[in-house]
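S.,

Sequence below, as promised.
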Amino acid sequence: MSLTDLALLVVAGFGAGLIGYITGLASVVSYPALLAVGLTPIAANVTNTVALVAVGVGSTAQSGRALLDGDRRQLVGGAIASLIGGVVGAVLLLVTPAGAFEAVVPYLVAIAALALLVQPALRRLATSHAERPSVFLLGVTVIGIYGGYFGAGAGIMILALLLVVTSEPLWRAALSKSLFLGIANTVATIGFMIFGPVHWWAALAMAVGCLAGGWCGPPVVKRLPAGPLRIAVGLGGLGLAVWLALR
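The prediction came back faster than expected:
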């Protein structure tokens, strides 16, 4: 891998970190960047998961104290559910044939992009702020499985779940989303480090950018026009899904 490739991955990682915090769809930037420098789909996916751990580290380090001011029981329960889900998802990826992953990944990207485009409708469902702890734990576990297996759009799904079944305000839900997704990615990463085809130079370069992007996410999100960015990333995700299907 050339220095140009590594520089591209650092830049892509920074963009993924910012977009991941703001919209929850970091992989729409990071995954195709890894494919562009020559990684196979499976290698790109596991390397992407390893690198995106830095997004959660960066954003949680920036605003982690605010998390502790909320419902700690919910925080711990969500963390445990994310851990379990991440383990199951990583195992599924490692034991299923590579061809199965390549066949399903365009649909996963499309689902994630559609979830981003309909995010305002999902938020409107949260107006009652009904507390549903069991649904919350089950939902975080299922999304953690998806996150460990592929992960694109998992942040959107967790954010929507928090807004619908908890009383968390949007800003705290965004912080919790970063923490839960970071845990699922971290436990999946441990499995990929031992058993998966991680490209370590690519993962390191992208992680540097992701860390910086995740750190900048909380202050930047206050200044960017969220609506146009959400639509642009969602449409880009649909385009990526079509490209992956044709590829």
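The two ends are 22 Å apart (CA to CA).

Coffee later?
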